[in-house]
Structures are given as C-alpha cells and as structure tokens.
Amino acid sequence: MGKNKTTFNLNSKFTFGKYKDKEIESIIIQDPSYVIWCKNNVKFFELSDKAKKLLKKHKPIRSSGSYGDPGEARGAANQGMVDVFGGSGMDGGWGSNPFG
C-alpha cells in the first residue's frame, strides 16, 4: 500500500464520485471500467487483493492500448470508418474517397 492511500475492500463503499456510498464489489461487476479509471487516476485509491482478483475477472476485454488512452477511442472510431469506406487507415482513417 502506498503512502496516503486508502485500501478499498469488496464490501467498502465509494467515498467519492458517481458511485458514492455504493459497494466496491457491485461496481466492479456493474461498471469495471469506472473502477479501472479510479485505480489509474485517483491518487488515494487502492484495491485490496480480493478486489483486484474480482476486477481482473470482470475487466472489459480490450484488443490493444491502455485504459484511459484518448488515442484508443480515436483508433476504434477510425477502424469503424475504415470498415465503412474500405480504406487501410494509413490515410487518416477515411480510406478511399467513396464519392469518386
């Protein structure tokens, strides 16, 4: 445990944020991305070993990148555009001009 960190167990309740007063266990199951965001961005937030194991079990599946990486969302959006327009993605994600 790091200095000035609060270790949250499965039955601990969030003391902040949109899930304030909700148990960690239920949020790990309901919204694991939020817990991962807290783990990566809230300086005092620490999970117990049991909470980490449960989070690992419920962690959203990612194809690449790290959580909270703004480029990852752009990459996913560009991939969708590439699929629609049939390009390779090397030209800014739009593919060939579908209008001529």
Provide structural commentary.
With 100 residues, the protein is mainly alpha-helical. It has two domains: 6-58, no CATH class; 69-100, no CATH class. It has four helices and two strands, in the order βααβαα. The protein has helices at 24-30, 32-41, 49-58, 70-85, and strands spanning 6-8, 45-47. Helix 1 (24-30) crosses helix 2 and helix 1 runs parallel beside helix 3. The longest helix has 16 residues, at 70-85. The chain is globular and about 30 Å long.
Alpha plus pi helix count: 4
Number of spatially distinct domains: 2
Tally of strands: 2
Note the beta-strand portion: 5-15%
- Low-pLDDT stretches are 69-94
List the strand order in the largest sheet.
1-2
- What is the overall silhouette? globular
Structural class: mainly alpha
The biggest beta sheet is recorded as:
2 strands, parallel
Radius of gyration: 19 Å
Helix content: 40-55%
Average pLDDT level: 75
Distance between the termini: 59 Å
Order of helices and strands: EHHEHH
Task: Give a concise summary.
The chain is mainly alpha-helical. It has four helices and two strands; from the N terminus they run βααβαα.
Supply database-style keywords.
2 strands; two-stranded parallel sheet; mainly alpha; single chain; 4 helices; 2 domains; 100 residues
Topology summary:
Elements: E1 6-8, H1 24-30, H2 32-41, E2 45-47, H3 49-58, H4 70-85
Helix pairs in contact: 1-2, 1-3
